[in-house]
TrEMBL record:
Pfam families assigned to the protein according to its UniProt record, in alphabetical order: NMT1
Domain Solute-binding protein family 3/N-terminal intervals: 47-266
An annotated GO cellular component: periplasmic space
GO molecular function: ATPase-coupled transmembrane transporter activity
Alphabetized PANTHER family for the sequence: ALIPHATIC SULFONATES-BINDING PROTEIN-RELATED
Function of the molecule: Part of a binding-protein-dependent transport system for aliphatic sulfonates. Putative binding protein.
Domain of life: Bacteria
Keywords (A to Z) from UniProt: Signal, Transport
Protein's name according to its UniProt entry: Putative aliphatic sulfonates-binding protein
Entry's transmembrane regions: none
Location(s), subcellular: Periplasm
UniProt feature coiled coil, ranges: none
């Protein structure tokens, strides 16, 4: 009898263990199902209007490959090219875009003006990708030589911050130069005519000018500015479609992997889109490190705060801002 009872107990324990295992499996399957259901329930945005520049390599690759159109088949994806970041963020703030890509300075001016937008992602620093240029035969050879000179750059752009940092390193003040606020195309024309003494600019305009007229960099961003770049989104995109944002950032990182492992094809994609010759694109990409897109890390938030503080200290924005207030924090 005892043997029979022990046998029945073993059978009962085995059944309970199997039931517990089955329950764990069921719970795991249910959890995965709930995650998928949450993603599906969110749905994709009906429209995704993207503002970008020629410097936005990952976005250019996505555009050329139609990757976001495939990721969001029910979404109307529209691509809008701009000459610089300030124009992108102005369009974003008035509801003409859902997503944009800029350098470090435009978001500072946008936040100072109370624009409704959020940092959703960033790429690693690219200090070699911007420079203060002079003509090949210029008599300017050091940053201190900029005193009293006319320097062209896009107001509120990353080049603006580069000039601020260059002056500080040279022991000069903002009052020591004549800032000439021009969009990239107009700045290049003025630079080539000799109407300005120097031009602060980023790639690929920087590379194109080097290739075409052998312009000389007085200094690049190394030791001056990290030249960080950010993805920014409208308030509705952040509030309603967080899962879509995660998909976008992943797609951007996949595009960067393509650039790193298929350099010749990437050069062709960018050249075909931009109209820039392949020599210019190759030079441009040679200065660009691997650039996956990720949610903004704490170190870059702190770096961006220092950018904002620099403009506030010079009185170029009216009051101190807190960058972290507008940084999107994804939930798992």
């Amino acid at each position: 009898m005892n043997v029979l009872i022990n046998a029945l107990n073993h059978i009962r324990l085995a059944w309970l263990e199997q039931s517990a295992y089955a329950m764990k499996v069921a719970v795991a399957v249910l959890s995965v199902g709930l995650v998928h259901a949450a993603i599906a329930a969110e749905s994709a945005p009906p429209e995704l209007r993207i503002g970008f520049q020629k410097s936005a390599v990952n976005l250019v690759i996505l555009k050329q490959q139609g990757a976001l159109e495939k990721a969001f088949p029910q979404t109307k994806v529209k691509w809008v090219e701009f000459p610089a970041g300030p124009q992108i963020l102005e369009a974003l703030s008035v509801g003409s875009l859902e997503l944009g890509f800029t350098g470090d300075t435009p978001p500072v001016f946008a936040q100072a003006a109370g624009k409704p937008l959020y940092y959703i992602g960033s790429e690693p620093p690219k200090p070699r990708s911007s420079a203060i240029l002079v003509l090949a035969d210029s008599k300017l050879h050091s940053l201190s030589d900029l005193k009293g000179k006319k320097i062209a750059f896009q107001k509120g752009s990353s080049a603006h911050f580069l000039v601020i940092r260059a002056l500080k390193k040279a022991g000069l003040t903002w009052a020591d130069i004549q800032p000439i606020y021009l969009a990239p195309a107009d700045a290049r024309a003025a630079f080539e005519r000799g109407s300005v003494d120097a031009w602060a600019i980023w790639d690929p305009y920087y590379a194109a000018t080097q290739v075409s007229i052998k312009a000389r960099p007085l200094a690049d961003g190394r030791g001056l500015s990290d030249n960080n770049s950010f993805y920014l989104a409208s308030k509705p995109l952040v509030e309603k479609y967080p899962q879509s944002i995660k998909t976008i950032l992943k797609s951007l990182s996949v595009a960067d992997e393509f650039v790193q492992s298929n350099r010749l094809d990437a050069v062709k994609y960018i050249s075909n889109f931009s109209g820039l010759d392949q020599q210019t694109v190759t030079l441009f990409l040679s200065r660009r490190p691997p650039s996956p897109a990720t949610p903004v890390p704490a170190a870059l938030i702190a770096n961006q705060q220092s950018v904002a503080d620099s403009f506030q200290e010079l009185g170029l924005i009216p009051a101190k801002i807190q960058v972290a207030d507008l940084v999107w924090k994804p939930t798992h």
